[in-house]
Specification:
mainly beta, about 60% strand, 5-stranded antiparallel sheet, 4-stranded antiparallel sheet, Methylamine Dehydrogenase, Chain H, single chain, about 130 residues, 12 strands, WD40/YVTN_repeat-like_dom_sf
Length: about 130
């Protein structure tokens, strides 16, 4: 499994693969990481996973290139889908990080420059 993105939740890892799959991993007593569960069904999506970030204790946010955000509550198994506000000139969203309750979103603009946006409020729900 080729890992493209990685985030931790306590002793578990959430990884996005190059094949557009997301898995939760647990460490075993022998020190190896094993798949615990698949998160979502992204393999057949036309949108590439461009970021994953832990927003709160049990919430992982998955960002797709078009700005769709999937907020997965790992403890409850629930999903909330939202959209990033479409800023003028954004060609695609390319990265996601969480810092002190805020989301940092990287984007490539139409003029091929890179921009970093800071979101302090949740994106609008679908």
């Amino acid at each position: 499994m080729e890992i493209a993105k990685i985030e931790s939740i306590g002793s578990r890892l959430v990884v996005a693969t190059a094949g557009n799959s997301i898995y939760m991993l647990d460490s075993s007593t022998d020190g190896r990481w094993r798949k615990r569960a698949r998160v979502g069904e992204y393999e057949k999506s036309s949108q590439t996973i461009t970021g994953i970030a832990r927003l709160r204790d049990s919430t992982i946010v998955v960002m797709l290139a078009n700005g769709t955000l999937h907020h997965w509550d790992i403890d409850r198994g629930s999903l909330v889908v939202s959209e990033l506000p479409r800023s003028e000139g954004v060609q695609r969203y390319t990265g996601l990080a969480a810092l002190d309750g805020q989301m940092l979103v990287a984007a490539v603009m139409d003029d091929h420059t890179a921009h970093l946006f800071v979101l302090s409020e949740p994106a609008s729900s679908k």
